[in-house]
Amino acid sequence: RKNDDAFIHHSSAVELPPSTEYRTYRQNGVTGCFSSPPQPEVEGKVPILQGFEVDYSRENFDRNVQHLRVRVITGSGNNRPIIQVCHADFNDDDVFDFYVRYALVDEDLVFGFDTLRATKNDGGLDTRVTFERPVNTVGVITGFDVEFVSGDRDLDHLRLELNQDGRAFVNFKDQTNNDSYRWQIDVAYIGA
């Protein structure tokens, strides 16, 4: 591993209620896209994404990426979270390990869900979308997808930001900064 790629991290947190439960899911030796088996039932709770890490330290070369996904979902009609992680390139043969940390919030504190999405046809600066959140709530990310439209690229920058003023920003680019990409952020609105 070269360890010469720049990485900038900034995150902000929303204070969650004391009744919130926290869980972590880990998986080693994954390639392409992965969906976990259903996790233990979480009756009356809604999963929200808290953090994740994708680790390529097993291999000795840089990775291109076409599609990046991290989501914690519950299936229709059941309360068993499924963790989805995708870090795919053109042939899905790069081995990685990952962990996803998620919180389980009481469902009576969740006042709605939203899916924000856009396509950026020429790369470049951030794409922005606006959204309206219910009064007295905060938006939290439950999952996201970003994907280069025309194949894999050497990832240079990834930005996902959900502001409480009703704006979301995404930037997913390689070094040429001119490749089209599409994205989606899944949001839950929690009572403040």
Describe this structure in words.
The structure is a single chain. The protein has strands at 21-30, 33-35, 45-55, 67-74, 81-88, 96-106, 110-120, 127-130, 137-148, 155-162, 167-174, 181-191. The chain has 192 residues and is mainly beta. A hairpin with a 4-residue loop joins β10 (155-162) and β11. It is globular, with a radius of gyration of 17 Å. The N and C termini lie far apart (43 Å). The model is unreliable at 1-10 (pLDDT under 50).
SSE arrangement:
Elements: E1 21-30, E2 33-35, E3 45-55, E4 67-74, E5 81-88, E6 96-106, E7 110-120, E8 127-130, E9 137-148, E10 155-162, E11 167-174, E12 181-191
Antiparallel strand pairs: 1-6, 2-5, 3-6, 4-5, 4-9, 7-12, 8-11, 9-12, 10-11
Report, as a whole number of angstroms, the end-to-end distance. 43 Å
Main sheet attributes: strand count, strand direction, barrel closure:
6 strands, antiparallel
Radius of gyration: 17 Å
Strand order of the largest sheet: 2-5-4-9-12-7
Number of H- or I-type helical stretches: 0
Instruction: Determine the fraction of residues in helical runs and give it as a percent range.
Output: under 10%
List low-confidence stretches.
Answer: 1-10
The helix-strand sequence is EEEEEEEEEEEE
If you average the pLDDT, what whole number results? 81
Instruction: Give the number of DSSP strands.
Output: 12
Strand content bin? over 45%
Overall geometry comes to globular
Question: Given the helix and strand composition, which structural class is it?
Answer: mainly beta
What labels would you give this structure?
192 residues; mainly beta; three-stranded antiparallel sheet
